[in-house]
Design brief:
single chain, mainly alpha, two-stranded antiparallel ribbon, 4 helices, disulfide bond, alpha-1,2-Mannosidase, metal-binding, Glycosyl_Hydrolase_47, mannosyl-oligosaccharide 1,2-alpha-mannosidase activity
C-alpha cells in the first residue's frame, strides 16, 4: 500500500507520480461511496500515518495528476467523511480534519508550482 500506481500483471506498485500514494488517496472516495468500511479504515490510516511525511519531502511531481488524484481525493474524502456537514457522519478512518489539513498542506506546496515559467514542477 502507498504506491502511486499498480502494475496489474506483476502485482507490484510503482511510484511514478512523486511517491505520494496516489492510488490509495484516489480510491478512498470510491470506497466511501461503496460502503467498504475496511478499505476506508485502512486507507485513512495510511493517509494519516504516511502522507504528510511524503508531502513534506522535496521532489518532482506531476502537477496535473497530483492535483486531481491526491488533492482532489483528499477533498472528496473530507466531504464524504462528514467534514463541514458533508455526506456521511458515520465514516470509518481518521477524523475529517485529517483529510482537510493534509489537503491544505499539499495545496500550499503545490502553489509554488504556479510561480515558475517551466514545464517541470517541484514541491518546495
Amino acid at each position: 500500500m502507498g504506491s502511486d500506481e499498480l502494475m496489474p500483471l506483476s502485482q507490484r506498485g510503482v511510484d511514478g507520480l512523486g511517491g505520494l500514494g496516489a492510488t490509495v488517496v484516489d480510491a478512498l472516495d470510491t470506497a466511501m461511496i461503496m460502503g467498504l468500511d475496511e478499505v476506508v479504515s485502512e486507507a485513512g490510516s495510511w493517509i494519516e500515518t504516511n502522507l504528510q511525511d511524503r508531502i513534506n519531502q522535496k521532489g518532482q511531481v506531476n502537477l496535473f495528476e497530483t492535483t486531481i488524484r491526491v488533492l482532489g481525493g483528499l477533498l472528496s474524502a473530507y466531504h464524504l467523511s462528514g467534514g463541514e456537514q458533508g455526506l456521511n457522519s458515520t465514516h470509518k478512518g481518521p477524523q475529517p480534519i485529517v483529510y482537510l489539513e493534509t489537503a491544505r498542506n499539499l495545496a500550499d506546496r503545490l502553489l509554488s508550482c504556479f510561480y515558475f515559467q517551466s514545464n517541470i514542477y517541484s514541491l518546495q
